[in-house]
Amino acid sequence: MDWGKPIALKQWSVFKNYLSCERAQDPDILPRDTDLTVMEIIHKLDQRIPPRPFTHKNSTTSAKHSRATILNPQHTYCQGDQLDVLLEVRDHLGHRKEYGGDFLRARMSSPALKAGASGKVTDFDNGTYLVSFTLFWEGQVSLSVLLIHPSEGVSALWRARKQGYDQIIFQGKFLNGTSEVVTECGLAVNSSAELCQYLDVRDHEAFYCVKPLHVPCEAFVYMTTKNRPISHLSKKEWNLFHRSNIGIEMMKNLKSIVVFPCNKTKDIKKKCQIGMKAPLPSGYTFKGNWITSFCKLTEFPASKNVRDCLGRKLIYLMGDSTLRQWIEYLPKVVETLKYFDHHGSGPFKTQVLLDIEKHSLIRWKKHSHPFVTQKLFSMKDERYIPREIDQIAGDSNTAIVIGIGQHFRPFPINIFIRRAINIRKAIERLFMRSPETKVILKMENTRELYINAELFGDFHGSVQNLVMRDIFEDLRVGIIDAWDMTVAYSSNNIHPPNNIVWQQIRMLLDYIC
User: Does the global pTM surpass 0.70?
Assistant: First the structure.
């Protein structure tokens, strides 16, 4: 499947099944423009991820039997050239497949140079793929395409994701005087009992808890989650997601190539700025540093340079723990950034850094429902990101960074699409009152290959990144492509190492200074 191609959206007037949990809870709510857009995007995704019948593993894509061929091979490869590989996929019996949709990950690398970059995969939907690599650096280069999931597995994951909200258990804690009462909560609660309804009517967002006896709904103070031991995949389908069947190399037969400088002149790139459109790949790592392919990143050789950049800045980080890594790393670079005790406890409390002399403030706050963690977190200051954005005045020294996705993976995609649309609307309102405010989107990064693919696998993250790019396509925001970065660095960790975190922060600094 060509995951890089944007979704083409057109208004359509035929109402299909209304896929949001709100309707299940309140049948009187009528679809609005947002609901139509949500359904339209889902319809387009359904067209891109069609059902693929799965009868036996032998009929699925085999990395071993597939063939890769370099197109127009050269005696000499020059830095800056594009190298194309034709990939013909076959099943485990050696038969050519007649459709695409496999979830592939392409990468080129030179370990000795600490260099890496993602490749671009174009799906012709007939069992052949074009894998394109930009030869960014000179030296010996290895090429790789990993079969993460065959198209039959992709189809199964997409079908399973639509089955409901029952795979994550939300446990809400309510205060009853000095004691706590635990009750079931969720994005949709299947119960005939009285419910506490936490509704955002404007944005059509909803969360519910079974109301504890003799305890008001306002006494909701903490929450935790755990996985429910159920699956919407069959046992036969689960075999496709066994560790031994994930991330299999498809290009073992291709030898490494040698890239020469060829005395080519390098393009002079402009400084990275908000609103620039990033190609794929958006950059590469060389000697451990991230080098963007479409703009020039400013060097910050000393702590003083970073501190000066952050002077008089108000930076609001809104999202998950991959953004929290930023606020945890920055004091290691700028020692004058000190934590302000925002009260609360646990890793998901709001965190604030201050540099009093420089009048700098950086704040991280977790996004609202769904938030999936076994660790207890507070519900006392819970707001959706659009509401947080609405409270920010904004100016030329204010920056907002938004990073969501990982916690949405176990739920139907309509929840994520709706949130992204509501965030866009809040940014549009912000730009009307403060057009000079800087907004940056941090895309999802890759994570562990062998995590539960049905709930947390990277296939879901790739779809959500596609949705984010489409929804924000024509809005003047900055993009930090954490997915592209983590593929280039070959990082399969939900929390990338500090070096990658620093490269992401470097992009932020370039956007705001």
Answer: yes
Residue 229: half-sphere exposure toward Cβ, Cα within 13 Å: 0
- Per the document, the length of the chain is 513
Q: 43 by DSSP, 3-state: which?
A: helix
Alpha-carbon gap, residue 367 to 39, rounded angstroms: 24
pLDDT by residue (tens digit) across 93-131? 999 999 999 999 999 999 999 999 999 999 999 999 999
164: three-class secondary structure by DSSP = coil
- Contacts of residue 414, defined as CB under 8 A and 6 or more positions apart, other chains included, come to 19, 20, 38, 39, 42
DSSP type of residue 79:
T
Distance separating the N- and C-terminal Cα atoms of the chain: 38
Where b means 16+ CB within 10 Å and e means fewer, 479-495 reads bbbbbbbbbbbebbebb
pLDDT of residue 87: 98
Phi-psi region of 186 (alpha: psi -120 to 50; beta: other; left: phi over 0): left
pLDDT over threshold 50, residue 286 = yes
Q: How far apart are CA 234 and CA 324, in angstroms?
A: 36
Cβ atoms within 10 Å of 278's Cβ, excluding its own: 18
Give one DSSP letter per residue of 314-364, joined into a string: EEEEEESHHHHHHHHHHHHH-TT-EEE-----STTS-EEEEETTTTEEEEE
Q: How far apart are CA 212 and CA 216, in angstroms?
A: 8
Question: Do residues 339 and 328 touch, judged by C-beta distance below 8 A?
Answer: no
Token look-up 């660790």 returns 375
- Token representation of residue 107: 């990468």
Least confident of 294-298, 342-346, 433-437: 342-346
Peptide bond into 281 cis (omega under 30): yes
Contact 260, 138 (CB under 8 A): yes
